[in-house]
Known about the structure:
The chain is α/β, with parallel strands linked by helices. The protein has helices at 10-22, 33-42, 59-68, 84-92, 105-116, 154-164, 173-180, 191-203; strands at 2-6, 26-30, 47-51, 75-79, 97-100, 128-131, 134-137, 142-145, 148-149, 213-215, 219-221. It has 8 helices and 11 strands.
Amino acid sequence: MKLLVAEDEPALNQIIVKRLKIEGYSVDSAQNGAEALEYMEATEYDLLLVDIMMPEMDGLTLVKILRRRGSKVPVLFLTARDTTEDKVNGLNSGGDDYLVKPFEFSELLARIRALLRRSSSGGMISDEMTFEDLTLSSSARTVFRSGKEIFLTPKEFAILEYLLRNQGIVLSRDKILEHAWDFSYEGASNMVDVYMKTLRRKIDKDFEPKLLHTVRGAGVCP
Length: 222
């Protein structure tokens, strides 16, 4: 899953990004609302973590602009402003949840997982996804095939999760790279091929039918 953190306090921004990456998320970070808006115009995110008080463009203005443009991406406000009025303003501006600083990282993760389970249409995205005899749990970070647990690296898990959330869709190498890596990644695009090779070995080598298919000239489709 791909997240964007918009937080103007450098130390907190770095801590949140680092911890989220350890959890297996692909994360970009912005220092203000205007920069976050530029990121949003360049790629798609599954969730935004937005500070309210930021220079150039505050978090409330950022989210109001996104909602006017039709974006339904879930937004979790992170702020030191803790009055009921502040919370109401945040939710009325288009936010989906509101977490007051300082907070425990375990609570932040729980709220992120809860928001990610919600679809953009207001329904629920299942925490557990299945495809043939393969089962992936987003919260438990586990993968089983035919009842046998398959151990994946965080990046392998992120790619497989993205593929399963888009079953039946051919995803190009660029799409996978864009979603599973952040903007700071400067490696070669063939890293997608490297990870797909290891995924196929773990997911398909000892099982039938084969689940991960390459469509020549187009991409990968589960």
